[in-house]
Design goal:
3-stranded antiparallel beta sheet; 5-stranded antiparallel beta sheet; ChsH2_Znr; single chain; 146 residues
């Protein structure tokens, strides 16, 4: 892990489901979730058990890389992103995004070019990095598309 000029040797495991989720993003620019066989809820990011049903889930489904802003905040202070060590441009957004085909929200950064277009219900799409490494920051950010 790098942050600015500092480096700290740190790794963590994301488990079987998290690994597949990140691998699909890295290799295919796809979001994969899992569907509960009982209530049919699709989870992004994927998890092994459905919380309300306590049912094990193993049906993988692809969801869209576009969705809607469910909630968001706009930040106006700069900081070094601990994942990249790079300074975040201001302003930037952080949002809960409900991808098309999913029943849960996914959290990520939103690029802010025109604040008047950033609103609950706005359509957004994922922008992937050109060179992906199997990390959540392979999704550079989301942009408003309407």
């Amino acid at each position: 892990m790098h942050s600015g000029e500092g480096e700290q040797p740190f790794n963590y495991a994301v488990g079987e489901y998290g690994s597949r989720f990140l691998t699909e993003i890295r290799d295919n620019k796809k979001f994969m979730g899992v569907r509960c066989p009982k209530c049919k809820k699709v989870y992004i990011p994927p998890r092994k058990l459905c919380g309300p049903c306590f049912t094990e889930m193993d049906e993988w489904v692809e969801v869209a890389s576009e969705g809607v802003l469910y909630s968001f905040t706009i930040l106006r202070f700069a900081f070094l992103d601990p994942e990249t060590g790079e300074k975040k441009p201001v302003p930037y957004g952080y949002a809960f995004i409900k991808l098309d085909g999913a029943d849960t929200c996914f959290q990520h950064f939103v690029e802010i070019k025109d604040e008047s277009k950033v609103k609950v219900g706005a359509r957004v799409k994922a922008i992937f990095k050109e060179k992906r490494e199997g990390k959540i920051v392979d999704i550079e950010h989301f942009v408003v598309v309407d």
